[in-house]
Write a structure and sequence with these properties.
The protein contains 5 helices and 4 strands; from the N terminus they run ββαββαααα. With about 140 residues, it is an alpha+beta fold. β1 and β2 form a beta hairpin. The longest helix has 15 residues. It is globular and about 50 Å long. The N and C termini lie far apart (about 50 Å).
């Protein structure tokens, strides 16, 4: 039986710094596996490559039997991945960030969140239609 997750010589550099170097990993179906290491050891980078959010500098990885760079929506729907902290996808609009975050939390209080976001939008004078990258990079609104 093929492993559920496989990495072969998985490597990722940021600039000249190798964060993950030549990782070989097989995780069989039905097994629990943990990545342990100090801060900066490459655990999050490895997971991001395994779920297709970051491409390796070299090497390959497969998740659910598919190259991680080619995961489809139905593959991703079978993967549970929650980032540490708050991650903004630059293509999202401000209003979409709340909906995206809520999907990962079944007990999310939508009314409370909507009130908090409305207050933050009013305080910061930010349109919910603006893209996150415009705000993060201090760009003027598109259009």
């Amino acid at each position: 039986m093929k492993p559920l997750i496989r990495a072969e010589r998985l490597t990722r550099y940021f600039g000249s710094h190798a964060v993950v170097r030549d990782l070989d990993l097989d995780v069989p179906h039905g097994k629990v596996t943990a990545l342990l290491g100090l801060n900066g050891a490459g655990k999050t980078t490895t997971i991001r490559m395994l779920v297709g959010l970051l491409w390796p500098t070299r090497g390959r990885c497969w998740t659910l039997g598919r190259d991680s760079r080619d995961l489809r929506a139905e593959d991703l729907s079978r993967i549970g991945y929650m980032v540490e902290g708050h991650y903004l996808y630059s293509w999202m609009r401000v209003g979409e960030v709340q909906r995206f975050a809520a999907e990962g939390h079944p007990r999310w209080d939508s009314l409370l969140t909507q009130l908090a976001i409305a207050a933050a939008i009013a305080l910061l004078s930010v349109s919910p239609a603006r893209h996150a990258f415009e705000i993060l990079s201090n760009q003027p609104p598109a259009g």
